[in-house]
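Record type: monomer structure entry
Structure origin: computed from sequence
Chain ID: A
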Amino acid sequence: RVHQRLAHHRSRSRALARGVYVRLQTEYDDLLGRRDPFILRVDLGDRGIFYRVNVAGFATKAAADSFCADL
């Protein structure tokens, strides 16, 4: 399965990253309404900690890219 990154957010908490997803879900309910995000914590050293907001469930990269283009 393929996932698509929707956003990355420099933040101290996973909760703030989740809030980014909730705002996107509100704006794009027709595309994101039934999808649950998965949030990855990424340590970029001197650049800080980032949380990446992703959605999964795409059969192919082309399907994920199409989904992202629709956003």
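Annotation 1: DSSP finds three helices and three strands in the chain.
Annotation 2: The helical segments are 14-27, 29-32, 61-70.
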